[in-house]
Write a structure and sequence with these properties.
The protein contains 5 helices and 20 strands. It is of the alpha+beta class.
Length: about 290
């Protein structure tokens, strides 16, 4: 491993509203403070960063995670995924459908996954998530990212006025990938603002999601359901979304404070293996 100083790299937007590719960096190198600061600013500017063609070890992944803040805790009770974490470095979760003796070696193994914010069901959600690809299927398993900023900025003013200042309840059954389906017997829930102000950028984003948001606090269930469905549909409009088609060696980091993400289905008989870390949250959403 070498130490890079004053590293030059390019920031190439992926869509109008969300995502940028960082070109010209080897994340196996230890980067200097000025380079790290520029990467962090690009993350705040674009919400999702893509690094292609990386060949990094687990120790490198943890080091890169710390460029964006303290490493977050595992995020779910480890006893429910006894093989779903790196044996060497327990802060790394394996996302995989690979099975050994009929048991999956990783979490969230199969199928598509509804749009969601990671850890929104906790009192202090994680700021970010990193995902590094080791094995991918021949097709499918794409990850979609939607901009909460763009969704908020273009929201109907009447709907925005009705929900401004309100809070929502978020509930998650660990391991579930579809709303109201699955899970492994452990749950968590928390309340947060419907519209979140990002503490670093000062921008507002829609902060509800189809997988985990259950209720707008203080509204009858029927009215809440109708409003949430309208927000879900608006937030997931194609013009706000970047679809990532994975290649081996891709590393993505996304900002959970201002974006949601989802997963396409993929062949169950083809292997998929990702390594996941998180950036710990520092404040309660406001």
């Amino acid at each position: 491993m070498t130490v890079a100083t004053q590293t030059s790299f390019d920031v190439v937007p992926l869509t109008k509203h969300i995502g940028a590719e960082i070109r010209g960096l080897n994340l196996g190198d230890t980067l200097d403070a000025a380079t790290i600061d520029r990467i962090h600013q690009a993350w705040l500017d674009h919400s999702v960063l893509l690094f292609r063609g990386q060949k990094i070890e687990q120790e490198d992944l943890l080091r890169v995670t710390e460029y964006f803040g303290p490493i977050g805790p595992l995020g779910r009770p480890a006893k429910f995924f006894p093989k779903g974490y790196s044996r060497l470095l327990p802060n790394i979760m394996m996302i995989s459908n690979i099975r050994e003796n009929g048991e999956t070696i990783g979490a969230l193994p199969d199928g598509e996954m509804n749009f969601h914010h990671d850890m929104i069901h906790h009192e202090v959600p994680h700021n970010g998530t990193l995902l590094y690809s080791l094995e991918i299927p021949s097709y499918g398993g794409d990850t979609l990212f939607a901009s909460g900023y763009a969704a908020y900025d273009t929201l109907d003013p009447a709907l925005k006025a009705k929900l401004e200042g309100r809070r929502a309840l978020h509930h998650y059954n660990y391991g579930s990938t579809q709303r109201g389906v699955g899970g492994v017997g452990a749950t968590a829930q928390a309340e947060h603002p419907v519209f979140r102000t990002h503490e670093d950028t000062g921008r507002k984003a829609i902060y509800i999601n189809r997988l985990m948001t259950k209720l707008v606090i203080g509204l009858p269930q029927e009215e809440s359901d109708a409003l949430l469905e309208a927000l879900f549909d608006h937030s997931e409009k194609p013009e706000f979304v970047y679809r990532h088609v994975w290649k081996v060696g891709d590393l993505l980091i996304w900002d959970n404070r201002c974006s949601t993400h989802a997963r396409d289905d993929f062949p169950s008989d083809q292997r998929r293996l990702m390594l996941r870390t998180t950036v710990q949250g520092t404040v309660r959403p406001a």
